[in-house]
Design brief:
Number of strands: 11
Order of helices and strands: EEEEEEEEEEE
Helix content: under 10%
Shape: globular
Number of helices: 0
Largest sheet: 7 strands, mixed
């Protein structure tokens, strides 16, 4: 059974870069044909898909966040990471990582505040 665990700072200052890591166990992030996503849920709002990195290493981002988003991976540690630049308080949310949007981590709260 695959397990995903998000980690990273819970507080980020405005204009800085938000960085989160998802550590995967029970399955390799390079296994065909899985897609590894980041999703967020702002307080009182619905889920918003941010982007994915595929088993091949290719990436695809939500058009609304593309200019500020980068997703990368560390295959030696079976991790993938999210970087979201120039954050504002509107980026405050619970951030999730997921495999194929079927297996999810528990989520991690990130607050953008000075």
């Amino acid at each position: 059974q695959v397990q995903l665990q998000e980690s990273g700072p819970g507080l980020v200052k405005p204009s800085q870069t938000l960085s989160l890591t998802c550590t995967v166990s029970g399955g390799s992030i390079t296994t065909n044909y899985y897609y590894w996503s980041w999703i967020r849920q702002p307080p009182g709002k619905g889920l918003e898909w941010i982007g994915y990195i595929a088993y091949s290493g290719s990436t695809y981002y939500s058009p609304s966040l593309k200019s500020r988003t980068s997703i990368s991976r560390d295959t030696s540690n079976n991790q993938f990471s999210l970087q979201l630049s120039s954050v504002t308080p509107e980026d405050t949310a619970v951030y999730y990582c997921a495999r194929d949007l079927l297996d999810w981590g528990q989520g991690t709260q990130v607050t953008v505040s000075s």
